Amino acid sequence: MPNPATCPFPGSRLWLVSVALMVQSVISSSSTYQRPAPGGGGKRMGFMERTLILLDVNTRSPVQVLNDNFLSLQLDPSIIKDGWLDFLSSKRLVTLARGLSPAYLRFGGKRTDFLQFHNLKNLAKFRGPGPDYYLKNYEDDIVRSDIALDKQRGCKLANHPDMMLELQREKAAQMQLVLLKEQLSNLYSNITITARSLDKLYNFAECAGLHLVLGLNAQQRNPDSSWNSSSALSLLKYSAGKKYNISWELGNEPNGYRSMMGQTVNSTQLAQDYTLLRTLLQSVRYYSRAHLLGPNAGRPRKNAILLLDGFMKNAGSVVDAVTWQHYYMDGRVTKVEDFLKTRLLDTLTEQITKVLKVVNSHAPGKKVWLGGVGPAWAGGTNNLSDTYAAGFLWLNTLGMAAMQGIDVVLRHSFFDYGYTHLVDQHFNPLPDYWLSLVFKRLVGPRVLAVRVAGLQRKPRPGRVIRDKLRIYAHCTSFHNRNYVRGSITIYIINLHRSRKKIKLAGTLRNMTVHQYLVQPYGTDGLHARSVQLNGERLLMVDNETFPELKPRTLRAGRTIAMPPMTIGFYVIKNINAYACRK
User: How much of the chain is in helix, strand and coil states, percent to nearest 5?
Assistant: First the structure.
């Protein structure tokens, strides 16, 4: 399987000469590895630790150009059921979401096909159950908060009292037991989304600078098994009347309908459903040019691939982008080591290859989105999928998807129940949020090819060497005003249990580098739920202010030293890369 860190571009004599000179200078330098004197007290370094890695990047042209909203977000409809939808107006939550803009916000998941739209306002019976001893006061607080928000113009933001948030967390904890039981049994109950609920959802997206992608229920069927679009049309008309700028999709993982609902929708029927939805969008003038995404297939195994192939054959031209999902492991994993397996990290590139093969056979050049991705399904695992350890999977997902041309990656989930989200229920950012924030600040949509020397040993017959050092490169984000156009951002994942030394070669040689090293904070190591950047813990200053992301300047020509089990971003400033100037 190709190494994600070594995407070769045509070699040249200049590259070989540069590498040779670099190796010669390294050998003659006093800073190179010295063999310990016999009987010395120091521990002799292993082969992999003393190996110097030479790194260069093709700065002439990008290998991929992605969507500006490449890193995007997802919210699960379960937030209606557990009550968190009523708190999307929180200033802190909006601030955290705005930090990851521009991005898409997909409102969808397994419960997409159980959403029922009712054009009603503020009826308590649609909010779901809560503990009896505070339910009435709790509902009254929500109503009073809604009335106060309605009086605001523009973005409607709130500072919810601590007591109100504590009651909500108590309610959500009880409801999460119900939600988890549904997920494990694969038996789901309906969820009502009212006009008020949609207003709150859109207000959150609009205030945070996110573009809403709304999933419609595909399981509302007529007796002849065709899609019943009456509820969808009502929702479309309401949204158009409010002039809500929304993109649309239909259903979620249609290849799994048999196990969830006891009925099957084949690729031909699914294509007809999407064609009908496109007709509905065109009939509502405000959405005549709205984007339609689909079919949002599950992991590309046999049934999902067959469904995707039939769908692309019959309705490939109907959708603006093809969507599918990928989750790495069962949510019942119990070991942190499961998040560090290179074989697990490499499953994504295999799945992407399968999907791209099907899409390009029917619609070459059609954009492909990873419409839902997370470290684990079944809600994830507490103290694992919400810790620093999960960051290796997340950043590797972004790097691999970018190299293979996936246009958008939607992270499940920004905020909801379970343990795979970016923000917890106290509105505190988790490690994957901070990684996403640094990524958004530094990494642009132009992907560059990386060339590495000294990374791999010669593989033995019948054995694949899976790299524990993963290197990706992009043009630095044009939105970052601290760097001029032409700068390059390299991000590196070191899964080794030893330090790795990386020397910039070729076009990168003797350039000043800004380092953003992300490490776990505290004594919990890989289980940490907080991170530090260049040695300083990352914490929100207040509900509306992010901490300053301060780089550490590495002098020109200095070797990059990556500590074991860490993640680093490195900006090569003032390189004036041709691929990054436009």
Answer: 35, 25, 40
398-424 as b/e: b if 16+ CB within 10 A? bbbbbbbebbbbbbbbbbbbbbbbbbe
Number of residues written out for the chain: 582
Task: Return d(Cα 168, Cα 476) in angstroms, integer.
Answer: 41
Please tell me the distance from the alpha carbon of residue 63 to that of residue 48, in angstroms, as a whole number: 30
- Asked if residues 79 and 111 have their Cβ atoms less than 8 Å apart, the reply is no
Residue 291 CA from chain centroid, whole number: 20
Higher pLDDT, 345 or 97: 97
Rounded to an integer, what distance in angstroms lies between the CA atom of residue 293 and that of residue 107?
13
| Residue appearing with tokens 């709150």 | 200
Matching CATH number, 66-119+152-445, of 3.30.1220.10, 3.40.50.2300, 3.40.50.300, 3.20.20.80: 3.20.20.80
Closest CA to 245 of 285, 282, 213: 213
Cβ of 471: how many Cβ atoms within 10 Å?
Answer: 26
Catalogue the E-assigned strands of 478-549.
Answer: 488-494, 500-504, 513-520, 531-533, 536-537
**Alpha-carbon gap, residue 155 to 149, rounded angstroms:** 9
Assess contact for 193 and 238: CB atoms under 8 A: no
For the domain bounded by 52-64+447-580, which CATH number is listed? 2.60.40.1180
The SS3 call for residue 178 is: helix
Closest by alpha carbon to 26, among 500, 570, 563, 557? 557
116 sits in which H/E element: strand 115-118
| Residues of each domain in the chain carrying CATH 3.20.20.80 | 66-119+152-445
Contact (CB, 8 A) for 454 and 41: no
Dihedral pair phi/psi, residue 185, rounded to 5°: -90, -15
Largest CA distance in the chain: 85
Strand, helix or coil for residue 336: helix
Taking only the tens place, the pLDDT of each residue in 224-282 is 989 999 999 999 999 999 999 999 999 999 998 887 777 889 999 999 999 999 999 99
What pLDDT is attached to residue 335?
82
- Minimum mean pLDDT range among 57-71, 256-270, 517-531: 256-270
Nearest in space to 442 (alpha carbons), one of 570, 574, 578: 570
Whole-model pTM: value is 0.88
378-388 pLDDT, tens digit each: 566 777 889 99
| pLDDT confidence of residue 29 | 38
Q: What is the DSSP letter of 482?
A: T
Contact 231, 198 (CB under 8 A): no
Query: Which pLDDT tens digit goes with each residue over 546-559?
Result: 999 999 999 999 99
> Rounded to whole angstroms, how far apart are CA atoms 278 and 334?
44
Q: Where in the chain is the domain with CATH 2.60.40.1180?
A: 52-64+447-580
